[in-house]
Each structure stands twice: as structure tokens, then as C-alpha cells.
Design a protein that fits this description.
The protein is of the alpha/beta class and 259 residues long. Helices cover 39% and strands 17% of the residues. The chain has nine helices and eight strands. The chain is globular and about 55 Å long.
Length: 259
């Protein structure tokens, strides 16, 4: 299903459904296709919002995790959302965390992280993306998943077109370096919102020990591992991912029982 891209001021986004907003933040090579099963499912329960993060459109000075966190802050303020459930994959999770820590926004009701950077990640591996090397990009894209078949030609072509542009590669490197510098280990105990961690047991980019560390450092967090799953659970095992997330969100919407 294709969704209409809306515009409000400088912001482009998808907004589908009604209810408490579920705002989805994509990763470094993220695209709307990453969230398709999630949007299809949750638009019947929530107002699902996907802002187009300007990963490769910001000027180089502001191409950083902090720059993207400011963008998210302005977007949520402009749209006037309340009781927001924030969900971030990979770099998107990191951006969500920096936004929460810097602004302490009262409008955020919960945060969900899946394969998030912010503590440790392997990134593109031991070298920068090589321009013009399709086979290299295909192998790196396959590493995102437990099942390499998930790296479809369409997805590899998308990543290849980004890494084949010199200025875009410079910005990708700037963002990757910013993510490494912006380690949140000492700040995560300040997160007040209930936090859901959904992690692929076979994630080679942010391995399972990263999820364990997030769980240890974030006070109100719960951790779910999904077996035979890599760095993008919402793409690779959407049914299981959606079931875990839906249960978490339902629990938050139920009135607290008085002992």
C-alpha cells in the first residue's frame, strides 16, 4: 500500500490512522519500505507518523545526531502531538534518545528502540562505503539481516544509489562519526519514559550485548529478543515485532489498577 506524503512547513511526513501518535524514526539507510508492515498494522490502532528525516539534506555543519534530534523536536512541536509513542530503528533510535535527553519533553509517553545505536555499533563494518562497488554494497546490505534474501535488489539499488554520490557519502560518514562520538552510556539513567527494547538475536551491527546494556541502563525498560532476526526486526519478522509492540502499547493505555 502506498501512503500520501504530507507537508507542513518544511516537514514532509506520512500520517495515517487515529489515536495516540506512534512516531517512527528510520535509520541511516532507512526508507519508508522499512516500516510498511508496521504502518499497515498500527494505522488501525494509532495515528502512525513517519517524518522524513533530512539525513542527507542538512548542511554539513548540522549533519549530526544532535542536528537530527533538533529536527524531531521542531517537528513534534509544529504538529502539536501529545501522548507520543516514539519508535526508532538503528540511528533513528539514537536520534530519539538524544531528543528525549536534551529536551525532556512531557509529550512523549514511551520510547521503543530496535537495533539502536547510542552505545555501540559496527556501522558499515571495518571500512567506509566504497563508491561504485555494487557487490560490496550488496554484501553489506545482506549483513543487516539474518536472512540475506531480505536484501532485495530494490533495497541494494537504493543503498547503492546513496553511496554512489560523493556528497551523500561524506554526510553518511559525518553521521556515522557523530553517532560514535555521541555515546549515551552515562545519560540513559535519566530516561523517565517506559522503554521497550526489541532486538534481533542475530543482529551483527548492534549485537545482543548492546540490548542487554540498554536494558541495564534505562530504568523503566523491558527487553524482548527475537530469534533468527538481524538488525531490522520490524522488516524481517513484522508479525512478532508488531505483537510485542502492540502488547506494550496496550498496557500503557490501560488505567492503572489501585492496590
Amino acid at each position: 500500500m502506498t501512503y500520501e506524503i504530507k507537508q507542513d512547513n518544511k516537514f514532509k511526513f506520512i500520517e495515517e490512522g487515529e489515536g495516540e501518535p506512534l512516531v517512527l524514526l528510520h535509520g541511516l539507510f532507512g526508507a519508508l519500505s522499512n516500516f510498511q508492515p508496521l504502518i499497515d498494522y498500527f494505522r488501525h490502532h494509532n495515528k502512525v507518523v513517519v517524518p522524513m528525516l533530512p539525513l542527507l539534506e542538512m548542511d554539513l555543519l548540522h549533519t549530526s545526531v544532535g542536528g537530527l534530534a533538533k529536527f524531531v523536536n521542531k517537528f513534534i512541536e509544529t504538529r502539536g502531538y501529545q501522548n507520543v509513542h516514539l519508535l526508532g530503528n538503528s540511528l533513528g533510535g539514537h536520534v530519539g534518545l538524544v531528543y528525549l535527553l536534551k529536551n525532556q519533553p512531557t509529550v512523549i509517553k514511551s520510547i521503543t528502540l530496535t537495533g539502536s545505536s547510542g552505545l555501540f555499533e559496527n556501522g558499515m563494518g571495518d571500512s567506509y562505503p566504497k563508491r561504485g562497488d555494487y557487490e560490496y554494497i550488496r554484501k553489506k546490505t545482506e549483513l543487516t539481516f539474518y536472512d540475506p534474501k531480505m536484501a532485495t535488489k530494490e533495497l541494494v539499488d537504493e543503498v547503492f544509489s546513496i553511496t554512489n554520490n560523493r556528497l551523500k557519502v561524506i554526510k553518511i560518514i559525518a553521521l556515522a562519526k557523530s553517532a560514535i562520538r555521541n555515546n549515551l552510556g552515562e545519560e540513559l539513567n535519566q530516561i523517565k519514559q517506559p522503554t521497550l527494547l526489541i532486538w534481533g538475536k542475530n543482529d551483527s551491527i548492534t549485537p545482543p550485548f548492546v540490548a542487554e546494556e540498554f536494558h541495564k541502563l534505562i530504568p523503566q525498560s523491558e527487553l524482548h529478543f527475537i530469534d533468527k532476526c538481524g538488525h531490522a526486526p520490524m522488516m524481517e519478522v513484522p508479525d512478532e515485532f508488531n505483537a510485542i509492540l502492540h502488547k506494550f502499547l496496550k498496557k500503557l493505555s490501560e488505567p492503572a489498577t489501585v492496590a
